[in-house]
Amino acid sequence: MSASPLVSVIMPAYNAGAFLRPAVESLFAQTHVNWELILIDDGSTDGSVEALADLDDPRIRRFRQKNSGKPAAMNRGLSLARGEFYALLDADDLSEPTRLERQASCLAANPEAAGFFCGHYLILEGRRLAPTFRAKSTTECARDIAAGRMPGHDPTAMYRMSMVREVRYSEDLAIGEGFDYIMRVGERFPLLVLGECLYGYRVHAQSLTKKNPSYRNRLIQEAFNRMYDRRGEARRAAPGLDRGSGGRLRDADNDMVSHFTTSVADQVLAGRRGGAVSTGLACWRLHPASAYYAKPLLYAMTPQVLMKVYRRVKEWRTEARLVRESAARRERAR
Q1: CA distance 275 to 314
Q2: Residue 183 and residue 148: Cα distance in Å, rounded?
Q3: For 20-40, how does the pLDDT look when each residue is reduced to its tens digit (9 = 90+)?
Q4: Which H or E element spans position 93?
Q5: DSSP string across 136-154
Q6: Is residue 252 part of a domain?
Q7: Can you tell me whether residue 260 is helix, strand or coil?
Q8: Where are the alpha helices (H) located in 150-255, listed in sequence order?
Q9: Cα-based distances in Å from 85 to 106, 115, 175, 221
Q10: Residue 195 covered by a domain
């Protein structure tokens, strides 16, 4: 492995509008300069990709295809990637300046790992909110995978090409392709999470998942069904798709409350009480008439020791459920 490995950044772009240029320019600010951007124009009609013509940098490789969806664009990018590692960057998101350097260094230092996630914050109406930054070991990530949870947010990942080269995105999953991909990688290889917030995830009304939450939920359920079938488990409702707390508001916001709650917990455990309260208030202001959106603010008031107990209890419950499911699978196999 080279001292400064080439990182292939794959960016599918479909009508990303004014968000595309900041996303690309966030790569120019990287402290790790040995990167290539594989920009897949997935049949855009808004002129956003053409507007980048003035960015004359040999590290930018542009390709155009008819509109085929993000998974197909990702697969084309993977077939073109030349790097030792590859990272994702959505066309409306941002990478913090040290993102590529830190994740590439972590992969180089942990040769057993196929991928490294990092923490992320939300970009909502131009504001940067709710940072997450919890580190996770390979054991914790394996527990997440076994429980059907992504260890980190899917676009924050950087992967080792020598391990995942043959793994491809499911092109019939226009939504949920990231979850499906991470589960299949994580079932085969160790994963890690870097405890730093290095990625900005933009939330806006134009995103497919916000425009059609029922369509999103159907495809998420399909991704879970494939995981259940692959593992020989009984199919059941995907976590978070029940009609419990939050209801339609939760669906419309892609359950941002869960992200805010995670951010509050990370900040409380790090001794950042002021940041935790600010995060809780920002969530509540999204829908002040809904008690569900006040949940992170209540968590922000939780003493640090109780937050540690709460997280540990959640881990115990997950471990107990995994034991029960394993026993059930063995029983069905008899």
Answers
A1: 23
A2: 7
A3: 999 999 999 999 999 999 999
A4: none
A5: B-HHHHHHHHHTT--SS-G
A6: no
A7: helix
A8: 161-164, 177-186, 208-211, 213-231, 247-252
A9: 11, 9, 24, 30
A10: yes
Per the CB < 8 A criterion, the answer to whether 146 and 192 are in contact is no
Cβ pair 203, 256 in contact under 8 A:
yes
305 within some domain: no
Number of domains in the chain: 1
Question: The domain containing residue 72 runs over which residues?
Answer: 7-209
Contact residues for 334 (Cβ-Cβ < 8 A; gap 6+):
none
The whole model's pTM is what? 0.91
Contacting residues for 229 by C-beta, under 8 A, at least 6 apart: 235
Q: Which pLDDT score, from 0 to 100, does residue 246 have? A: 46
Which domain CATH number covers 139?
Answer: 3.90.550.10
The answer to whether position 283 is within a domain reads no
Query: How many percent of the chain have pLDDT more than 90?
Result: 79
Report pLDDT digits (tens) over 93-132.
999 999 999 999 999 999 999 999 999 999 998 999 999 9
CA–CA separation, 57 and 51 (whole Å):
14
